[in-house]
Known about the structure:
The chain is mainly β. The protein has one helix at 157-160, and strands at residues 37-38, 42-44, 50-53, 60-62, 68-70, 74-80, 86-92, 97-103, 109-115, 119-125, 131-138, 142-149, 161-164, 179-185, 188-193, 196-200, 207-209.
Amino acid sequence: xxxxxxxxxxxxxxxxxxxxxxxxxxxxxxxxxxxxxxxxxxxxxxxxxxxxxxxxxxxxxxxxxxxxxxxxxxxxxxxxxxxxxxxxxxxxxxxxxxxxxxxxxxxxxxxxxxxxxxxxxxxxxxxxxxxxxxxxxxxxxxxxxxxxxxxxxxxxxxxxxxxxxxxxxxxxxxxxxxxxxxxxxxxxxxxxxxxxxxxxxxxxxxxxxxx
Length: 211
């Protein structure tokens, strides 16, 4: 479920765990969290249930073992996973933006995306909740994507985010390139780069052009 954003709007990747499909909640015992309310300071579910306050988000997001940047002065947007057990969250700092994964049940928060001098958008989730997309809008200008496993638990963006790249951009996304996530289909992510269609297998990382 996409939550409308309020006003504001790379690297070595560790292996992703397979078979991390979300378990559907017991509908008789679990009330839906939707509709969500996203403000600068808080994310709340139905009946004003508190999910996350901005004070609970680290002010700096770790990118790797050596670098971290401030990117969490306010919330921008959030998107629930299909079974509402995880939340993809984006925040904005004075200059930079970040993406995070929140485990709804225990409140565990993990870094998932980062954009230097730009913005980050969440979603969409794959239907089984195993993967979610974050889109980064940079100052070049350029737009890129990462895919993150729903159960990612690394302590830095580098450990959790798989950059989405076509073969011609293996060394980085050139200025002016525009990556757009379209939809999940048959467990693969359909996306476009400058109007050309591609398909990503998030488990293997293989990218193929769509004919």
